[in-house]
Amino acid sequence: MSQPTRAAIILAAGFGSRLQADEGHKLLAQVEGRPMIDHHSSGLHRLGVDHLVVVTGYAHHALEAQLQNVELPEGMRLSCVFNPDFEGKNGTSVLAGVNALRQSGHQGAFWLTMSDHLFEPALFDDLAAEFAPKPEREGALMIDRKLETIFDMPDATKLRLAPTDFDIGKELKRFDAVDAGLFWCGPGFVRALEDAKSRLGDCTTSDAVRALHARQAFEFWDIGARLWQDVDTPGARAHAEMLIKGWRATAH
């Protein structure tokens, strides 16, 4: 990417009850010896990100206090913003993060991911080398077509990508790919969320995807052979640790 997107938002406002993490929050959960925030910061740093905004909600004081002490890659800073509507849908957390970026002076595009999504490190190298959003695109979602590799398909957000039969959601019966939980968001993505919130009283990232896709202003970027894992249950954390061991073995 010729001009790196310098900011990223991590959504960490939920309860995280399914993981049962002794660490108290998904973002602090240790996965193969490193907290999730460490995996996020190192991966996003490969994309040129130097400002992370973590959107907090449930038990936010404890999480924010611990995040003040995390070690970040050189040149990266982290700030937190509390979403008082954290019990609602995830779009309100995105908008809270956007407001924090605006207050810091950032007006441009940003990366967006979820606190419990772990990605193969080489995916970030692929994106840095190959991802270049087209001028007419206002957002992009990394998708995975390797359906046989999905650890918890019932919980995955699914996509049906037929040109005349598009849909996105967890309950789809027919689908071609799953949402890997990593977005690139331009200003139009934010406007689509704001429009959905104005109309519906709440909003999700899927609302923005649908709206932009309908205007041919959105793209889906296939992660190819790269792997990822949604670390939201003890079994998923164990699976993520197995994946990391495999990535380390391949790297050497």
Automatic annotation (TrEMBL):
InterPro entries for the chain: MobA-like_NTP_Trfase (IPR025877), Nucleotide-diphossugar_trans (IPR029044)
Gene3D superfamilies reported in the protein's UniProt record: Spore Coat Polysaccharide Biosynthesis Protein SpsA, Chain A
GO molecular function: nucleotidyltransferase activity
Organism, scientific name: Lujinxingia litoralis
One Pfam short name: NTP_transf_3
Domain annotation MobA-like NTP transferase: ranges: 8-135
Record's protein name: MobA-like NTP transferase domain-containing protein
Coiled coil region boundaries: none
